Structures are given as structure tokens and as C-alpha cells.
Amino acid sequence: MKSNYQVTESANLQVLTEDQIKRILGAAKEVLERTGVVYYDQESLEILKKSGCFVEGNRVRIPSKLVEKALRTVPTKVTLSNSRTGKRVMELTGNNAYFGTGSDTPFFIDPYTQERIPASKKTVAMAAKTIDALDNMDFVMSLGIVQDVPQLVYDRHQFQAMVLNTSKPIVITANDVEGYADIIEMCEVIAGGEEELRKHPFMTLYAEPISPLQHAEDAAQKLVLAGKKQLPVVYTPCIMCGGTVPATLAGAMVNGLAESLSGLVLNQQTNEGNPFIMGGVFTIMDMNTTIFAYGAPEFHLLQAALADVSNYLDLPMFGTAGCTDSKLVDEQAAIEDALSIVITAQSGANLNHDVGYIEHGNAASLENLVISNDLIGFARRIVRGIEVNDETLAVDVIDKVGPGGHFLGEEHTMKYMKKETYYPDLFERTFYENWEAAGKKTLFDRSNDKVIDILENYKPEPLPKDVQQKLNEIVKRAESKL
Q1: Are 311 and 281 in contact (CB under 8 A)?
Q2: How do the domains of the chain map onto residue ranges?
Q3: How far apart are CA 28 and CA 438, in angstroms?
Q4: Contact 323, 335 (CB under 8 A)
Q5: Are 205 and 78 in contact (CB under 8 A)?
Q6: pTM score, two decimals?
Q7: I want to staple 98 with a disulfide (CB 3.0 to 4.6 A). Which of 138, 202, 441, 482 is the partner?
Q8: pLDDT tens for residues 267-321?
């Protein structure tokens, strides 16, 4: 049976059938109508009541027709741009898979000493610079939470450290709605105004509900502000099967989707047609350790299933890949990174974060990041599949060379050897003697060498001096209000 015959060139993955997707979505809508969700923000409650929701205190029950309306009005594509040029570099739609780091890890593995140190403004800058230099990394999250500044304004410092060291699109977190507003202002300075930022957004906010079925005051306020500013927003639950959501994978999907869709309704009621990115980090609570497991097989299943739902709804999806539960960049890390990256690329999730995470999200490693950069190249080659046409079948070339010949000098080989073949940067393919002569370096050794080379020699494209000064003034203004 060739139900997907027209796309068989690509090596894609689908976990759920269309009937299963419809049942999960139907159950999520029932949860929103019957059980409802809680919003802890007064303005959000007023917006939802006016829209036709049933509001009792903080509990809001959302009619299915409002969910369906939101799914009709939300754009099917979100575009993000380069902050220096304004050029559109990411189109979050269909099966386009982009990769970037995660945010807000409390610890950072120092590439010079391999010590596990608190993340700081310096380490966030180091991470952004490294990401900017890597070909397969498409966007930047902070890969650390800045802890060496006043904590009520850490988010402004965090964004400043990132945007000074990369021109790639940035996914931010914000301490509160005031922090989000300040970061928007900084982006408007860089873009050249409010309208220019709307036309060519290079930043999107990442915010979360609280499972099960709650929207904190600051999270709801951010959804509203994103709508008022007409800027893209990522709103995704982080759920643990058996802990914050049901233990069954289907039940977890229902709970998580209900949270995401209830955020979508608020955002669309604030501004119909506002760009919105669904998704989430769906995994298990490991009952032996209580950790939020990034390496579990259920994590991969849930993330791929969520991509099936987003593809069915034709909505951009925030996915997760390139992360591990391992405490070191070791064999476990490589296996878990590789599995998550390949499965994510095949599933068709769009904005895939957390590359570089180790220790189930508690620490960031630049070595893990650059190894994953190679793995993303592997995954993209796999997903591209095998092109079959008259030229790639190569019957004429085979006939020309004939039995016993070779293809090294053929024009056909010169044309296709790079197009067809992925050549990794760090993964070793030399003869033993050459590897020995080069110092017998392990994959980790080579990754550390690459990180140090980037940190010491790579120079990101700078922002103009006057723009840098204005950003600094906004940060200082926020500090002066403390």
C-alpha cells in the first residue's frame, strides 16, 4: 500500500493514524468544555468571558466552537528572520525542521576546565557565540539562566547576552510580562521600529502553562501582550506522565493538548490571526528517580505523536531534541541525542529546542552541542531520502564504465558526490594510523577542540554601537526600578 506515494523520497515518521488524532483532539476539546482550565489573570478572564466562555471565578470552560474558530484563524506558518539583515531564514510550516538550544539551565559545563559551574551572563554569551558559528544550528535559546545579575531583571541581561553574540533568530523566556515588554522594546530598537519588528520578527517568546490545566498570571499576560504586539509566541506545556498528567500516553496527550489549545484560544481572542506555535515537552516521570526523563522511549513517542497532531492541524510545532539524561557527554549522551534528533527530524516538528542539554535539563554542555550539530546533519540527510529519476538511476554511466571499471573520474560522480553524501565534521572516518598520528583524540576531545576554537577565534556580526548603547540603557532602566 502506497498511501504516501508522492512523498516517498523522504524518510518520514508517523506514530498516530488520522482516526487516533481525531479521537485525541476530540477528548482534549471535551476536557476544555467539561473540566475547563484555570487562569490567574483578570484581563484574560475578561477576554474569555466576553468571547463566550463560561467563567466561574478563575475556572474557564471553553466551548468547542471557540477552539475550532481559533484553529481556523491562527496562521499555518510562522516566519523568523535574521536580526542583522531582516532576511527571513526560518519558515515554520509543514515538515520544515529547524534546531536550536534550550534555555535556563542552572548549570554550565566550563569547556576550559570541565567544571560544573552556575550559568552566568558570560556563559550565555559563550553559548550564543558557539551556536552562531554552527551550520546546522538555526536558532538560539540561552542555554543557561543568568545568575550573576539582579534576578528580577535577569531576562533582560539574558537577551542582551544572546543578541550581541548572534544574528540568528532568538527564542526567549521572560521573568514576567514587564520583562517581556522590555525585551520587545529592545527588539524594536534593533529592527528599526515596532512595524519593522512585526514585519520581520527575529524573536519569539517561549511560555508555559502549569500542568494540570492552569495558566499562571504571568503566562496568561504574556499571551495577551504577544497578541497586542502582533508577535509570534510559543506556548507549550511540559508534562510528566504519571505526575502532572495521566500515566497513559494517550491521556497525557489529551491533557497537554487541552492546555496548549486553551492558550491558543486566549491568544486568538486577543488578536485574531496572531502567529502561534504549539507543541510541548511531553515525557514521563521516572518513578525510580522522579526525574523529567529526556532519554525515555516514551519521550520520543510522545514528541512524534505531538508532531502528528500539529501536522494534522497545520500548525507550527515547538519540538525537543538533542538532549540527554546523562551527566556527562558520554556514550549515553550520544545515543540519546542521536535518537531524539533523528526521530524529531523524521516526525516533522518545526522549532526544535534543547540541543546541548545534559543532566535532564539541569546543565548545558557546548561539547554536546557541537556533537549534536553533526548529528543534525546526519538526520537531515536521512530525512531527505533517496531521489529517483533518470539521472540518479545512472544507467548510462554504469553502461559507460562497464564491468571492472571505476567511477572516480566520472563527471556524474563529481556532480553528485557532495549533493548525495553528508560529510560530518567531528565523526572520525580516517585510517587508524592517521587517527593515531593526530593524537588518538576521542569524539569528546575533538568536540572540545572545536568549542575552544570557536570561543577564541570566531567573531559574530556585531550590532551597531548606537544600538548596543540603547539596549544597555533599557537594561539599566529595568535595574533602576528595583
Answers
A1: no
A2: 72-384, 390-420
A3: 57
A4: no
A5: no
A6: 0.95
A7: 138
A8: 999 999 999 999 989 999 999 999 999 999 999 999 999 999 999 999 999 999 9
